[in-house]
Each structure stands twice: as C-alpha cells, then as structure tokens.
C-alpha cells in the first residue's frame, strides 16, 4: 500500500491524529480531548463528537466553558484542513484567528458534535466555518476560523 491510499478522509486516520495530539503530553490538550471521536469526514468537512463532562465546564460547573468550545473549533478546523491535503505534502495549518459566537449556554453532560467545513483554501490560507450542536441539532456556538498554511523546512 502506498501513501496515497492512506487518506486524511478516513475516520481512523483522523482519530489517530487526535490520539497523537492527546499523547503529546500534559496540559489542556491531553486532559480535555479524551473521548473525542470522528463522526463524519469528507473532503474539507469534519464532524467530531464528544460527551461533555465536568472537566469542560466553567466556574459554574453547569455549563461548558467558552474557551473549551474555541479549543474544539481550533482542533476541528485544523483537522478539516488536513482532509484537503495529501499526507505526503507535509503541510500543516496554524490557527491565526477564531471569531466565535456563543449563542446559548451549553449544558454539561451533552454529547455534542463539532463541525468544521473548509470554505476556501489558497496556497497560504484556509477559511473554515464551524458549529457546535447537540444530538438534536440545537446549535450552541459558531465560529469562523482563519488558518495559515505552512510547510516544515526540511
């Protein structure tokens, strides 16, 4: 099997990337993305899901923290970019702007879907629209994300 058969449009590949991010070590990422799984993946489109828990809440302990929602928008946008990019290209995306609207408080204990869709991609930038919704389709927050596309210097 050659590298072109290993697709970033494969849910197992996206889940592997999430696992690698969590394993990278310590801090906010590792603690908070346990249980984050791929629900749907297509070219330029990604849906992840997670059951919200107390570790995701704000000081009230009843509602999911807005910063955690932004964190989910960041991860989902970057990974949705990877669905448009061949693995052998080695490019990566760096979030440079997240414009978020927190529509209504998101209660703890909900299984949520985080959706990101790449709306436009150039050689140096990608633009994503995102939303967080529950299983019934109620939208709790939205975001527009701008990504800078970079390639490592080898």
UniProtKB/TrEMBL annotation:
InterPro entries: HotDog_dom_sf. CDD domains: PaaI_thioesterase (cd03443). It comes from the Eukaryota. One of its GO terms (molecular function) is fatty acyl-CoA hydrolase activity. This is Thioesterase domain-containing protein. It comes from Dictyostelium purpureum.
């Amino acid at each position: 099997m050659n590298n072109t058969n290993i697709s970033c449009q494969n849910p197992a590949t996206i889940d592997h990337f999430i696992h690698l991010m969590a394993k990278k070590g310590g801090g906010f990422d590792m603690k908070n993305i346990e249980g984050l799984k791929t629900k749907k993946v297509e070219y330029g489109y990604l849906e992840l899901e997670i059951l919200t828990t107390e570790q995701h809440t704000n000081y009230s302990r009843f509602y999911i923290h807005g910063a955690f929602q932004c964190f989910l928008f960041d991860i989902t946008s970057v990974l949705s970019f990877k669905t448009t990019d061949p693995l052998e290209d080695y490019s990566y995306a760096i979030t440079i702007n997240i414009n978020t609207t927190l529509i209504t408080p998101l209660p703890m204990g909900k299984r949520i879907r985080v959706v990101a869709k790449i709306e436009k991609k150039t050689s140096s930038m990608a633009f994503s629209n995102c939303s967080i919704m529950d299983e019934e389709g109620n939208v709790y927050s939205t975001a527009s994300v701008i990504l800078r596309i970079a390639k490592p210097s080898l």
